[in-house]
Amino acid sequence: MEVLRTPDDRFANLPGYSFAPHYLEVGDLRIHHVDEGPPGAPPVLLLHGEPSWSYLYRKMIPSLIAAGLRAVAPDLVGFGRSDKPAAQEDYTYQRHVDWMRGFLEALDLRGVTLVGQDWGGLIGLRLVAEHPERFARVVAANTFLPTGDRPPGSAFLAWQRFSQETPVLPVGRIVQSGCVTQLSPDVVAAYEAPFPDERYKAGARRFPLLVPTSPDDPAAPANRRAWESLRRWDRPFLTAFSDSDPITQGADALLREAIPGTRGQPHTTINRGGHFLQEDQGEELARVVTDFVRRTAVV
Question: Is 96 a catalytic residue?
Answer without folding.
Answer: no
